[in-house]
């Protein structure tokens, strides 16, 4: 029997997702039209013999999360539970804290997935690889190839090319170590807990030697990457399965648009029903895009909106005549009035873009000429200037007619009265 754990982090994480993460926890933000986590859950639920999926994080359970768990359980017909850490315990600490829940029922192995990645999730392939490599208690990391410069932003793996054993592991090294990077997707056996227990004991001893702050001892985080993988590398216990299929991190709002594109490109095989087609709504589709419900369009075909490529439209969105949208996510309840143009944007829930307005951002797509390039999840500021990036409208923002909003982030509930460029509008 198998289980899966998804590490969803908590509210202090996902800061590069603001202001969108004010409204919805980052793991529930829609990517290719469904909550980011749903892609993980769907992949796990398809693995034969999968009994349970556990989400571990330090979010306060709220109505949205509860509703998502309820509908996902019904849709995928599998038990899904949320286990809340009392503090940020780290990628290994949360697993250790809930080890009894993970081990209940006696799974012979379990997957662990970072919530903030998009992937084809080659989980059955990882299982087959595990059976062929090393002893039954060995652990498997999913790896992919990155270019030399970008590899420094990830966990880097040096492998034995014949056996795929991990010989050396360095998390986000300062200088080049290897172009094989950790995808944040693992297959563990219950033996992992012996290794985490060793680190836990050591941390406890260190903590007891420390002066408590305000009468409290801090909760020591345990990081799978630095505390466990680095120590296990070279001991015949850790293996890397390299995938050639798509994979990307989702750290910033810009990377959510890129991840949306990666999933949408697969939808004609995996979910054709999620793609809009011409006849339904009477709009031109330049390439695939996703609509949750046909948008409300009632206009002569000569003024058909042009939607796509890579556009995802939430429920209850209103789209006027002659609207142009590409490379964007339009969240539910938004209204795009006649002839407005939306490029490389996330338009927040219930926002309105006035007639003939142009709302545009700058994509941060990976270099198309480099097969191993990954998306750069830039910091917000570079040289004390806002890095040009996609434009984000928080929820319930109003953009008047005939203005231009370029490379800007607009906080929720703003009613703008003029054009803006390269600004955060508070
Ligand atoms: N439950 C829980 N989850 C956590 C915690 N801290 C982080 N996470 C979750 O664990 C995942 C990893 O988050 P980070 O710690 O921010 O690491 P990272 O910079 O994304 O790097 C990791 O992922 C890369 C691939 O995307 C890897 O290349 C890298 O080695 C590392 O594993 C995310 O899904 C995050 O929500 C925690 O204390 N508790």
Outline the structure in words:
This protein is α/β, with parallel strands linked by helices and 426 residues long. It has 2 domains: 2-249, Spore Coat Polysaccharide Biosynthesis Protein SpsA, Chain A (Alpha-Beta Complex); 274-425, Hexapeptide repeat proteins (UDP N-Acetylglucosamine Acyltransferase, domain 1). Helices cover 25% and strands 28% of the residues. The chain has 11 helices and 33 strands. The strands form 7 sheets. Strands 1, 4, 5, 6, 8, 9, 10, 11 and 12 form a 9-stranded mixed sheet that branches. A 7-stranded parallel sheet has the order 14-16-19-22-25-30-32, with no helix packed on it. Strand 9 (155-159) and strand 10 (166-171) form a beta hairpin. Helix 4 (90-97) crosses helix 8 (192-209) and helix 4 (90-97) packs across helix 9. The protein is globular, with a radius of gyration of 23 Å. The N and C termini lie far apart (51 Å). Mean pLDDT is 89; it is low at 279-289 and 292-299. It binds guanosine-5'-diphosphate-alpha-D-mannose. Residues 7-9, 13, 56-58, 85, 88-91, 94, 114-117, 154-155, 171, 181-184, 221, 225, 249 line the site of guanosine-5'-diphosphate-alpha-D-mannose.
Tell me the fraction of residues in β-strands, as a range.
25-35%
What is the CATH architecture annotation of the largest domain?
Alpha-Beta Complex
What's the number of extended β-strand segments? Answer: 33
Bound molecules: guanosine-5'-diphosphate-alpha-D-mannose
Mean pLDDT: 89
> What shape does the CA trace take?
globular
Number of domains: 2
Structural class: alpha/beta
This entry's quaternary arrangement is: single chain
Residues in helices, as a percent range? 10-25%
At the third CATH level, what is the topology name of the largest domain? Spore Coat Polysaccharide Biosynthesis Protein SpsA, Chain A
Low-confidence stretches: 279-289, 292-299
Q: Specify the CATH homologous superfamily of the largest domain.
A: Spore Coat Polysaccharide Biosynthesis Protein SpsA, Chain A
User: What value does the Rg take, in angstroms?
Assistant: 23 Å
Total number of helical segments? 11
Give the CATH level 1 class of the largest domain: Alpha Beta
Largest β sheet strand count, sense and barrel closure: 9 strands, mixed
Distance between the termini: 51 Å
Organism: Gadus morhua
Domain Mannose-1-phosphate guanyltransferase C-terminal: 306-425
InterPro entries: GMPPB_C, Mannose-1P_guanyltransferase, NTP_transferase_dom, Nucleotide-diphossugar_trans
Protein name: GDP-mannose pyrophosphorylase Aa
């Amino acid at each position: 029997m198998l289980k899966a754990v998804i590490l969803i982090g908590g509210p202090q994480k996902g800061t590069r997702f603001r202001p969108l993460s004010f409204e919805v926890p980052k793991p529930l933000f829609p990517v290719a039209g469904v909550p980011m986590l749903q892609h993980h859950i769907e992949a796990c639920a398809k693995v034969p013999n999968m009994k349970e999926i556990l989400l571990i994080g330090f979010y306060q359970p709220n109505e949205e999360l509860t509703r998502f768990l309820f509908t996902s359980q019904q849709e995928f017909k599998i038990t899904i539970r949320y286990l809340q850490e009392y503090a940020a315990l780290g990628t290994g600490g949360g697993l250790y804290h809930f080890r009894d829940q993970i081990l209940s029922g006696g799974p012979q192995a379990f997957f662990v997935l970072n919530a903030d990645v998009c992937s084809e999730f080659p989980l059955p392939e990882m299982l087959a690889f595990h059976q062929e490599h090393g002893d039954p208690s060995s652990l498997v990391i999913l790896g992919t190839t990155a270019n030399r410069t970008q590899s420094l932003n990830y966990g880097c793996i040096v492998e034995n090319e014949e056996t795929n054993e991990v010989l050396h592991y360095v998390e986000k090294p300062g200088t080049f170590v290897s172009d094989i990077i950790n995808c944040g997707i693992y297959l563990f056996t219950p033996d992992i807990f012996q290794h985490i227990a060793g680190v836990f004991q050591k941390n406890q001893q260190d903590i007891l030697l420390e002066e408590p702050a305000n009468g409290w001892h801090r909760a020591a985080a345990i990081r799978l990457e630095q505390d466990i993988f680095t120590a296990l590398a070279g001991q015949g216990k850790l293996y890397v399965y390299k995938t050639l299929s798509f994979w990307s991190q989702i750290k910033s709002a810009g990377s959510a648009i890129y991840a949306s594109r990666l999933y949408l490109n697969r939808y004609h095989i995996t979910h054709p029903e999620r793609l809009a087609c011409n006849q339904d709504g009477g709009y031109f589709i330049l390439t695939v895009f996703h609509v949750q419900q046909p948008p409300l369009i009632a206009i002569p075909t000569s003024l058909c909106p042009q939607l796509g490529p890579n556009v995802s439209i939430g429920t209850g969105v209103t789209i006027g005549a002659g609207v142009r949208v590409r490379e964007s996510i339009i969240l539910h309840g938004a209204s795009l009035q006649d002839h407005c143009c939306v490029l490389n944007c996330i338009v927040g829930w219930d926002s309105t873009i006035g007639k003939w307005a142009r709302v545009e951002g700058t994509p941060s797509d990976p270099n198309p000429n480099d097969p191993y390039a990954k998306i750069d999840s830039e910091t917000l500021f570079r040289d004390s200037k806002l890095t040009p990036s996609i434009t984000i409208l928080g929820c319930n923002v109003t953009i008047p007619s005939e203005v231009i909003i370029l490379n800007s982030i607009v906080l929720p509930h703003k009613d703008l009265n003029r054009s803006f460029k390269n600004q955060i509008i508070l």
